[in-house]
Amino acid sequence: MEGVLTLAGEGTRMLPWSRGLRKEFLPLHDQGQDGSTILKPVAHLALESLVGAGADSITLVVSLRDIATAKSYFSIDREFLERHGHHRERLSETQQFYDTLSRLKIHFEVQPEPLGFGDAVLRARSAVGHEPFLLHAADAVLWEHTRGHTLRVLAALREAEKLDAVLLVRHVADPRRYGVVEGTPAGRYRGYRRLNVVRMEEKPAKPKSAWAATAVYAFSPELFTALDRVRRRDHPKELEVTDAIRELLAGGGRVAALVLTQSVGSWRSVGSLEGYLRAFHQSRAWSKSPVHRAPA
Q1: In 3-state terms, what secondary structure has residue 65?
Q2: b/e per residue, 92-115, with b = 16+ CB within 10 A?
Q3: Would the pTM count as exceeding 0.90?
Q4: What CATH number is given for 2-286 in this structure?
Q5: Which helix (H) or strand (E) holds 180?
Q6: Per residue in 183-196, pLDDT tens?
Q7: What is the distance between the alpha carbons of residues 69 and 49, in angstroms, rounded to a whole number?
Q8: Is 88 in contact with 25 (CB distance < 8 Å)?
Protein backbone atom coordinates (compact mmCIF):
# COMPACT_ATOMS: atom_id res chain seq x y z
CA MET A 1 0.00 0.00 0.00
CA GLU A 2 1.18 3.50 -0.79
CA GLY A 3 1.54 6.17 1.88
CA VAL A 4 2.28 9.90 1.59
CA LEU A 5 3.80 11.91 4.43
CA THR A 6 4.02 15.70 4.02
CA LEU A 7 6.71 17.80 5.76
CA ALA A 8 6.65 20.78 3.43
CA GLY A 9 5.06 23.73 5.26
CA GLU A 10 7.14 26.60 6.61
CA GLY A 11 5.75 26.55 10.15
CA THR A 12 5.42 30.34 10.47
CA ARG A 13 3.22 30.02 13.56
CA MET A 14 6.25 28.61 15.41
CA LEU A 15 8.72 31.39 14.54
CA PRO A 16 11.48 32.11 15.37
CA TRP A 17 12.13 28.51 16.47
CA SER A 18 10.99 27.04 13.15
CA ARG A 19 13.68 28.92 11.24
CA GLY A 20 16.16 26.35 12.55
CA LEU A 21 14.20 23.10 12.84
CA ARG A 22 10.95 21.78 11.38
CA LYS A 23 7.91 21.48 13.63
CA GLU A 24 7.53 17.91 12.32
CA PHE A 25 10.68 17.03 14.27
CA LEU A 26 9.39 18.34 17.59
CA PRO A 27 9.59 15.56 20.21
CA LEU A 28 6.64 13.76 21.73
CA HIS A 29 6.55 10.99 24.31
CA ASP A 30 6.06 7.39 23.29
CA GLN A 31 6.32 3.98 24.88
CA GLY A 32 9.54 2.09 24.25
CA GLN A 33 9.92 -1.63 23.66
CA ASP A 34 10.58 -2.19 27.36
CA GLY A 35 7.62 -0.06 28.47
CA SER A 36 9.76 2.98 29.33
CA THR A 37 8.95 6.50 28.17
CA ILE A 38 11.01 7.69 25.20
CA LEU A 39 10.95 10.63 22.80
CA LYS A 40 10.20 10.48 19.07
CA PRO A 41 9.70 13.24 16.48
CA VAL A 42 6.12 13.80 15.37
CA ALA A 43 7.03 12.73 11.83
CA HIS A 44 8.41 9.44 13.16
CA LEU A 45 5.10 8.71 14.90
CA ALA A 46 3.16 9.64 11.75
CA LEU A 47 5.26 7.24 9.69
CA GLU A 48 4.57 4.49 12.24
CA SER A 49 0.84 5.09 11.79
CA LEU A 50 1.19 4.64 8.02
CA VAL A 51 3.21 1.46 8.51
CA GLY A 52 0.71 0.17 11.06
CA ALA A 53 -2.03 0.71 8.48
CA GLY A 54 -0.18 -1.46 5.97
CA ALA A 55 1.83 1.06 3.92
CA ASP A 56 5.02 -0.49 2.56
CA SER A 57 5.94 2.31 0.15
CA ILE A 58 6.06 5.83 1.58
CA THR A 59 6.68 9.12 -0.18
CA LEU A 60 7.95 11.99 1.96
CA VAL A 61 7.30 15.45 0.53
CA VAL A 62 9.73 18.01 1.93
CA SER A 63 10.88 21.55 1.23
CA LEU A 64 14.18 22.08 -0.57
CA ARG A 65 15.91 23.43 2.54
CA ASP A 66 14.90 20.39 4.60
CA ILE A 67 15.65 17.56 2.17
CA ALA A 68 19.03 16.79 3.77
CA THR A 69 17.54 16.62 7.29
CA ALA A 70 14.66 14.40 6.18
CA LYS A 71 16.93 12.03 4.27
CA SER A 72 19.30 11.85 7.22
CA TYR A 73 16.56 10.91 9.68
CA PHE A 74 14.61 8.54 7.45
CA SER A 75 17.65 6.64 6.14
CA ILE A 76 19.63 3.83 7.75
CA ASP A 77 23.00 4.97 9.13
CA ARG A 78 25.08 1.84 9.75
CA GLU A 79 28.11 3.91 10.70
CA PHE A 80 26.12 5.50 13.52
CA LEU A 81 25.28 2.06 14.91
CA GLU A 82 28.91 0.98 14.70
CA ARG A 83 30.16 4.21 16.24
CA HIS A 84 27.94 3.77 19.29
CA GLY A 85 28.09 -0.01 19.47
CA HIS A 86 29.60 0.16 22.98
CA HIS A 87 26.24 1.55 24.20
CA ARG A 88 23.98 -1.04 22.63
CA GLU A 89 21.30 -0.53 25.27
CA ARG A 90 20.83 3.01 23.94
CA LEU A 91 20.43 1.86 20.35
CA SER A 92 17.50 -0.56 20.67
CA GLU A 93 14.83 1.93 19.57
CA THR A 94 16.98 3.23 16.70
CA GLN A 95 17.69 -0.34 15.59
CA GLN A 96 13.97 -1.12 15.61
CA PHE A 97 13.31 2.00 13.52
CA TYR A 98 16.02 0.98 11.06
CA ASP A 99 14.50 -2.50 10.84
CA THR A 100 11.21 -0.86 9.86
CA LEU A 101 12.92 1.39 7.28
CA SER A 102 14.68 -1.62 5.76
CA ARG A 103 11.31 -3.12 4.81
CA LEU A 104 9.97 0.09 3.25
CA LYS A 105 10.39 1.71 -0.11
CA ILE A 106 11.10 5.34 0.76
CA HIS A 107 10.78 8.08 -1.84
CA PHE A 108 11.61 11.77 -1.36
CA GLU A 109 9.89 14.49 -3.35
CA VAL A 110 10.62 18.21 -3.07
CA GLN A 111 8.11 21.03 -2.87
CA PRO A 112 10.25 23.99 -4.09
CA GLU A 113 7.86 26.65 -2.76
CA PRO A 114 5.22 26.59 0.04
CA LEU A 115 2.18 26.54 -2.25
CA GLY A 116 -0.25 24.71 0.01
CA PHE A 117 -1.01 21.26 1.41
CA GLY A 118 -2.62 20.19 -1.85
CA ASP A 119 0.43 21.22 -3.86
CA ALA A 120 2.63 19.17 -1.52
CA VAL A 121 0.42 16.11 -2.04
CA LEU A 122 0.47 16.58 -5.81
CA ARG A 123 4.29 16.35 -5.70
CA ALA A 124 3.90 12.68 -4.70
CA ARG A 125 2.03 11.81 -7.89
CA SER A 126 4.99 10.38 -9.80
CA ALA A 127 5.96 8.11 -6.91
CA VAL A 128 2.44 6.92 -6.08
CA GLY A 129 1.36 6.47 -9.69
CA HIS A 130 -2.12 5.08 -10.27
CA GLU A 131 -2.43 3.40 -6.88
CA PRO A 132 -4.78 4.32 -4.01
CA PHE A 133 -2.89 5.83 -1.09
CA LEU A 134 -3.01 6.94 2.52
CA LEU A 135 -2.15 10.54 3.38
CA HIS A 136 -0.84 11.77 6.72
CA ALA A 137 0.42 15.28 7.49
CA ALA A 138 3.62 14.94 9.52
CA ASP A 139 2.84 17.84 11.86
CA ALA A 140 0.06 15.94 13.61
CA VAL A 141 -0.29 12.70 15.50
CA LEU A 142 -3.15 10.25 15.86
CA TRP A 143 -2.98 8.63 19.28
CA GLU A 144 -4.67 5.24 19.47
CA HIS A 145 -4.01 2.00 21.31
CA THR A 146 -3.23 0.15 18.08
CA ARG A 147 -1.10 2.43 15.96
CA GLY A 148 -2.38 2.65 12.41
CA HIS A 149 -5.76 1.04 13.17
CA THR A 150 -7.90 4.01 12.14
CA LEU A 151 -6.00 4.57 8.89
CA ARG A 152 -6.40 0.87 8.11
CA VAL A 153 -10.17 1.20 8.57
CA LEU A 154 -10.25 4.26 6.28
CA ALA A 155 -8.41 2.30 3.61
CA ALA A 156 -10.68 -0.74 4.01
CA LEU A 157 -13.84 1.36 3.56
CA ARG A 158 -12.44 3.14 0.50
CA GLU A 159 -11.48 -0.16 -1.09
CA ALA A 160 -14.69 -2.02 -0.19
CA GLU A 161 -16.92 0.64 -1.78
CA LYS A 162 -14.47 2.00 -4.37
CA LEU A 163 -14.81 5.49 -2.93
CA ASP A 164 -12.81 8.45 -4.16
CA ALA A 165 -11.93 9.55 -0.63
CA VAL A 166 -12.48 8.70 3.02
CA LEU A 167 -11.87 11.43 5.59
CA LEU A 168 -11.46 11.26 9.35
CA VAL A 169 -13.44 13.99 11.13
CA ARG A 170 -13.93 15.10 14.71
CA HIS A 171 -16.42 17.37 16.45
CA VAL A 172 -14.83 20.71 17.41
CA ALA A 173 -16.03 23.77 19.29
CA ASP A 174 -14.77 26.29 16.72
CA PRO A 175 -14.74 24.79 13.21
CA ARG A 176 -13.78 28.09 11.56
CA ARG A 177 -10.10 27.10 11.83
CA TYR A 178 -10.49 23.84 9.91
CA GLY A 179 -11.72 22.18 6.77
CA VAL A 180 -15.41 21.70 7.59
CA VAL A 181 -17.37 18.71 6.34
CA GLU A 182 -21.11 18.50 5.77
CA GLY A 183 -22.51 15.01 5.56
CA THR A 184 -25.54 12.81 6.02
CA PRO A 185 -25.57 9.96 8.58
CA ALA A 186 -24.84 6.59 6.95
CA GLY A 187 -24.76 4.09 9.79
CA ARG A 188 -21.53 2.66 11.15
CA TYR A 189 -18.46 1.00 9.73
CA ARG A 190 -16.28 -1.23 11.90
CA GLY A 191 -17.34 0.61 15.02
CA TYR A 192 -16.99 4.13 13.60
CA ARG A 193 -19.90 6.45 12.93
CA ARG A 194 -20.07 7.11 9.19
CA LEU A 195 -21.12 10.13 7.14
CA ASN A 196 -21.65 10.47 3.41
CA VAL A 197 -19.94 13.76 2.57
CA VAL A 198 -21.97 16.20 0.48
CA ARG A 199 -19.90 19.38 0.89
CA MET A 200 -16.58 20.61 2.28
CA GLU A 201 -15.27 24.11 2.90
CA GLU A 202 -11.89 25.39 4.08
CA LYS A 203 -11.96 27.65 7.15
CA PRO A 204 -15.48 29.03 6.57
CA ALA A 205 -16.54 32.24 8.31
CA LYS A 206 -19.96 30.69 8.98
CA PRO A 207 -19.53 26.92 9.32
CA LYS A 208 -22.55 24.78 8.48
CA SER A 209 -21.39 21.92 10.70
CA ALA A 210 -18.95 21.25 13.53
CA TRP A 211 -17.23 18.32 11.75
CA ALA A 212 -13.58 19.23 11.21
CA ALA A 213 -11.32 17.14 9.00
CA THR A 214 -8.11 15.82 10.48
CA ALA A 215 -5.06 15.63 8.23
CA VAL A 216 -5.33 11.88 7.60
CA TYR A 217 -7.10 10.44 4.57
CA ALA A 218 -7.52 7.45 2.26
CA PHE A 219 -7.67 8.46 -1.42
CA SER A 220 -8.05 6.95 -4.85
CA PRO A 221 -5.56 8.27 -7.44
CA GLU A 222 -8.40 10.48 -8.73
CA LEU A 223 -7.33 12.92 -6.01
CA PHE A 224 -4.26 13.82 -8.10
CA THR A 225 -6.41 14.46 -11.16
CA ALA A 226 -8.71 16.71 -9.14
CA LEU A 227 -5.78 18.66 -7.67
CA ASP A 228 -4.25 19.17 -11.09
CA ARG A 229 -7.59 20.29 -12.55
CA VAL A 230 -8.15 22.87 -9.81
CA ARG A 231 -4.62 24.22 -10.19
CA ARG A 232 -4.88 24.62 -13.95
CA ARG A 233 -8.37 26.15 -13.87
CA ASP A 234 -8.32 28.38 -10.78
CA HIS A 235 -4.59 29.13 -10.34
CA PRO A 236 -4.94 29.40 -6.54
CA LYS A 237 -2.12 31.02 -4.59
CA GLU A 238 -2.16 27.96 -2.31
CA LEU A 239 -3.64 24.66 -3.48
CA GLU A 240 -5.52 22.82 -0.73
CA VAL A 241 -6.66 19.20 -0.45
CA THR A 242 -10.09 20.61 0.40
CA ASP A 243 -10.20 22.17 -3.09
CA ALA A 244 -9.69 18.75 -4.66
CA ILE A 245 -12.31 17.08 -2.47
CA ARG A 246 -14.82 19.71 -3.55
CA GLU A 247 -13.82 19.05 -7.15
CA LEU A 248 -14.39 15.34 -6.69
CA LEU A 249 -17.83 15.96 -5.21
CA ALA A 250 -18.76 18.39 -7.98
CA GLY A 251 -17.90 15.73 -10.54
CA GLY A 252 -20.09 13.11 -8.90
CA GLY A 253 -17.34 11.51 -6.85
CA ARG A 254 -18.16 9.55 -3.74
CA VAL A 255 -16.65 10.71 -0.47
CA ALA A 256 -17.25 9.35 3.04
CA ALA A 257 -16.09 10.34 6.50
CA LEU A 258 -15.58 8.38 9.69
CA VAL A 259 -15.94 10.09 13.06
CA LEU A 260 -13.07 10.04 15.55
CA THR A 261 -14.24 9.77 19.16
CA GLN A 262 -12.37 9.62 22.46
CA SER A 263 -13.16 5.93 22.76
CA VAL A 264 -11.09 5.34 19.61
CA GLY A 265 -8.28 7.84 19.96
CA SER A 266 -7.22 11.46 19.80
CA TRP A 267 -5.76 13.64 17.06
CA ARG A 268 -3.37 16.48 17.85
CA SER A 269 -1.61 19.00 15.63
CA VAL A 270 1.71 20.61 16.58
CA GLY A 271 1.29 23.48 14.11
CA SER A 272 1.12 26.08 16.88
CA LEU A 273 2.73 26.51 20.30
CA GLU A 274 -0.57 25.83 22.06
CA GLY A 275 -1.20 22.75 19.94
CA TYR A 276 2.28 21.42 20.58
CA LEU A 277 2.02 21.88 24.34
CA ARG A 278 -1.31 20.02 24.39
CA ALA A 279 0.13 17.22 22.28
CA PHE A 280 3.26 17.02 24.44
CA HIS A 281 1.34 16.65 27.69
CA GLN A 282 -1.17 14.22 26.20
CA SER A 283 1.62 12.11 24.73
CA ARG A 284 3.07 11.75 28.22
CA ALA A 285 -0.20 10.21 29.41
CA TRP A 286 -0.48 7.97 26.34
CA SER A 287 3.09 6.74 26.83
CA LYS A 288 1.95 5.20 30.11
CA SER A 289 -0.86 3.27 28.41
CA PRO A 290 -0.56 -0.02 26.50
CA VAL A 291 0.33 0.69 22.86
CA HIS A 292 0.24 -1.92 20.12
CA ARG A 293 2.21 -1.45 16.92
CA ALA A 294 2.64 -3.25 13.65
CA PRO A 295 5.20 -6.06 13.95
CA ALA A 296 8.77 -4.68 13.91
Answers
A1: helix
A2: ebeeebbebbeebebbbbbbeeeb
A3: yes
A4: 3.90.550.10
A5: strand 179-189
A6: 999 999 999 999 99
A7: 21
A8: no
